[in-house]
Amino acid sequence: MEKDNVCIDCYNQIDKVSKVLKLGQAELDILTIPKRILTFSFPVKLDSGEIRYFTGYRVQFNDSRGPTKGGIRFHPEVNLEEIKTLAFLMTLKCAVVNLPYGGAKGGIMVGPKRFSEQELERISRGYIREINGFIGPDIDIPAPDVNTDSKIMAWMLDEYEKLKGRHAPATITGKPIALGGSKARDFSTSMGGAYVLHEFADSFDMKPKKTSVALQGFGNVGMNIARILHEWGYKIVAVSDSKSGIFNKDGLNIKDVINHKQKSGQLSKFKNSKNISNEDLLELKADVLIPAALEDQITKKNASNIKAKLILEMANRPITPEADDILLDKNIFVMPDILANAGGVVVSYFEWVQNSMNFYWSEKEVLDKLKTYMTNAVKELSKVCTDFKCDMRKSLYINAINKVLEAERLRGNLK
Ligand code: GLU
């Protein structure tokens, strides 16, 4: 088979489970060679009248379980290898929470802060003109990702519908509610993580009121999970953003913290709190640690100082592989990113279902269903964990890869 398109990093990802799963060459090919790769460049007129070319990608990794699904990111360092890996990880993410989807990811090499709103609109529309023949409700369904939001999804959907000459809201998820978006989509990633933590803490007999939480990252995901866990009675002892962090061993009132941050633009100087650095926050003596900011925060340098009992990875890859081994030796339980932050794509799936039925659910209906999907996935994984006697991350890979390979086998693509 022609292997020019192989995803090298996917090999590294699979490495940890290829022996347990006894993967042969045919299986490895399926798991490392994306089904379709689109690389293109397109012209956009800037406000100055100048024409600039932008590079875009869309990788549709595997569609054996359903149409491919995944976000589109805007970032100056977007590159094809990264998008391939992220599309592979979306395939696993959808499988692990039992959505009838495969995985995809897309991106534009663009630093969004450097362009006006009108320019961003033209860039978004230009991207859709390039991929419109390869997306659709039964083919591939884009959504927001890093630096993209519901406004950008609205432009993208509008461009798609203009090109096709008909309404097709189920082509893109993460839309504004007025254009067919789902209730709760804007905080669904945080809510999904909170359900996972709740289920997980319960199995450790950790009651919310007696469970302390340290949280790194106060963007959309971090702020919302802090708010939800505080409402459920968890004691949030520390939070931080990219500039500063605050700590109170008796717990912070997160509602007031959010007000303070909205008014003053910062976390520091919050009443009854001490300042804490991001590094010290990670090493606090709290029961639960939630990294919800950037990659590579827990490394071989600080892993041995981590004191939490549970780590919920809301950010993507906040723990390096070397640090993962150290945490495992220390018996620290890690709930991996692919499941912890899957709430977004689960509610994207609900959005697609609602668009397809033209029948819309209340916020309560959406959240009840989200809870079922997230807690079932945790239960399923815990069982794999016991059966295979391995950690959550390996169990997740085993579980998701088995589902993808089963679908390929049933289609006759594997013996
Ligand atoms: N970008 C989000 C993710 O990586 C959401 C994807 C989606 O909703 O399709 O999970």
* Binned strand content: 15-25%
State the name of the first-level CATH class of the domain at 187-335.
Answer: Alpha Beta
Mean pLDDT: 96
What is the straight-line distance between the termini? 17 Å
Briefly note the structural class of the backbone: alpha/beta
Range of helix content: 40-55%
Please name the fourth-level CATH homologous superfamily of the domain at 187-335: NAD(P)-binding Rossmann-like Domain
Cofactors and ligands present? glutamic acid
Number of helices: 14
Named at the architecture level, the CATH assignment of the domain at 187-335 is 3-Layer(aba) Sandwich
Radius of gyration over alpha carbons? 21 Å
Q: Per the principal axes of the C-alpha atoms, what is the gross shape?
A: globular
Number of strands: 12
Strand order of the largest sheet: 9-8-7-6-10-11-12
* Largest beta-sheet details: 7 strands, mixed
Low-confidence stretches: none
Could you please say which CATH topology of the domain at 187-335 applies here? Rossmann fold
H/E topology pattern: HHEEEHEHEHHEHEEHEHEEHEHHHH
Describe what you observe in this structure.
Helices cover 44% and strands 17% of the residues. The chain contains 14 helices and 12 strands. The protein has helices spanning 8-18, 25-32, 80-96, 117-131, 150-164, 188-203, 220-231, 254-264, 278-282, 321-329, 337-340, 343-357, 363-388, 392-410; strands at 36-45, 51-62, 68-75, 102-109, 140-144, 212-216, 235-240, 245-247, 274-276, 288-291, 310-312, 333-335. Helix 6 packs across helix 12 (343-357) and helix 6 (188-203) packs across helix 13 (363-388). The longest helix is centred in the last third of the chain and has 26 residues, at 363-388. The model has no long low-confidence stretch (mean pLDDT 96). The structure holds glutamic acid. Glutamic acid binds next to strand 3, strand 5 and helix 12.
